[in-house]
Amino acid sequence: MVSLAEGKLLWTPSEDFKRASHMARYLDWLARERGLTFADYEALWRWSVHDLEAFWDSICGYFDIRFHSPYERVLASRDMPGARWFPGATLNYAEHVFRNETAEKPAILFASETRALQEISWRELKRQVACLAQALRGMGVKPGDKVAAYMPNIPETIVAFLATISIGAVWSLCAADVGKVAAEDRFKQIEPKVLVAVDGYRYGGKDYDRSDIVRDLSANIPGLGNLIMVPALRDSVKLDSAVPVHDFRALTAGGAKLDISAVPFDHPLWIVYSSGTTGLPKPIVRGHGGIVLEGMKLTTLHNNIGADDIFHWYTSSGWIMWNSQVGGLLAGATIAIYDGSPAVPDLGRIWRFVEEARVTFFGCGAAFFTNCMKAGVEPAKIADLSRLRGLGSTGSPLAAEAYEWIYDKVRSDIWLTPISGGTDFAGAFVAGCALLPVYSGEMQCRCLGAKVEAYDEAGQPLIDEVGELVCSAPMPSMPLGLLNDPGGKRYRDSYFDLYPGVWRHGDWIKITSRGGAIIYGRSDATINRHGIRMGSSEIYRIVEDIPEVLDSLVIDLEYLGQEPHMALFVVLRNGVQLDTGLAERIKQNIRTDARLGMCRIPCCRSTRYRAPSPEKRWKCRSRNCCSGNRSKKWRMPRPWPIPRASTGLRDLHPSSSLAGRRRSPAEVGFIHRPFMPRKRSGSRQLTCKSPLDLSSPAAK
Questions:
Q1: Beta carbons of 285 and 481 less than 8 angstroms apart
Q2: Cα angle vertex 378, ends 3, 177, to 5°?
Q3: Which of 76, 283, 301, 697 has a CA positioned 20 to 30 A from the CA of residue 684?
Q4: Model confidence pLDDT, tens digit, residues 549-559
């Protein structure tokens, strides 16, 4: 297998493939209904981001969005943050799901480590949703109230979601593999009226009982009135709970009429969480209308998924791709979900599920494809993938070598369409287009309606150079705001601090001259584990809750084509040894594969540092470590790490930059003396207030 370089042409759509695509149908509709014609996708994209009102109005027309009351105008205010979309319009996400009801195919296909493939019809899904919605109303849930869920990726979670939003209540989901502290940090902020929870789950052949955590959540969440239990490990739902406990099975038995409430376009739909380096996880609020429009556009136009498709994205319920997977119902597709480890009994399990469920579009985190490649898996030999026509990837950059492996071991004529977006705005900034060719290591296009650019330090757009990923025009799916954020300060500080009025996403990106995009990893201090963003503060809160641990520090290292590595350093109480038992307990608590090492943490005060640009290397030449020994430098193995700023910088701070060229070595050491950050020329650069020899332009 000959190694591929970035930018090599791998696939070109046939004329039949292009003509049958939803993007081509949309172009035909624009010409027929709006009198608009475009020479190519690039021209279409430019129109979509420069005439926002006309573009998003066309999306409403093309997808026949059902408004119960009409909108006064498309965009009442273009301010970011604070854009006002479709004032006066009312609708409901759930209504746009169930308008696709049909008896000709199932709504959901499902399998897990404990359950063989089964299907749920549209009629059955609607019946269960109607029954649960009726029960929620009986518990006093009204529009605007919050319903939280501590659930895995199973059909009951989708039922609870659709029932919640059908009555105008606000949904918030936390995966059942998240620990008690992390779940409480989320749910205490939103104070849900009802909690839907599972008693446990199976992963990797092992059962995980969550009853104790659910009991603690029911006692510690302020304002909680009722607990709905979904039995998974046992038949009984008996639980010593501080609130009344209901059996999910009993609530969804019988019959009821689904009564869907129309709500304003910007009525809260769900709350998701994204974390930074300080404070509690950010509760991000999204509206019904923006998610319906973005979901329709991304699923149908960019992923080319329609009513004839079976759509599977392997995901946890704690990842924003769970929301995207459920969004397949908006397009009328059958969604196929799998709950369990992708490596049990072996890495061929998900590929075999794709065959069993007759999947036509399959997506997964980039790490899954990389793991299959390393393990020597040959999907085409272990599963019939003849029905599969589209393959998606996200979560981290997909290396050119993985592109090569897919075309060599999956199918040579597959349409590979990696996307990049995230939890923060529940959509994609860059994605695929069935009209365009595929180049190794490169995403095909910037999404329609998303004015994505690569900015330099002065806020100027770049082509064929790496810069900050920004979106310089509003999108309907951007957050309504953060919960409990008076005046919107935390929201502005999170996304609009560096370029006022422009969304800074926190990734390094290069826009190619042919209109594609290459993502090079995080540019801020947020940790990204297989697409799930977390803040270092979340890890610190959990680790330092362990009595033996006095202090801790986490550093996240990312590589192209290799698994990321997160190193955790701990300071232990006097007399405590870091034995295997303690190490395993710490890892169990934070649910990660962090490697633990003994090292005193340098007591330096700092604020978060963002590398000034991915082209500039940062290294520290500290002469002594805290214990008086000479510091050892870490040299990264090839391939060299992607551009990335240091993470885990808080009151106790090792200075390490992981920013560097892909093929240039980056050395990581520790800063042991105080230094102060300052802003210069519109970017966060570092000025050192000590005689340390720092070979960084930012320190001069």
A1: yes
A2: 105
A3: 283
A4: 877 777 766 55
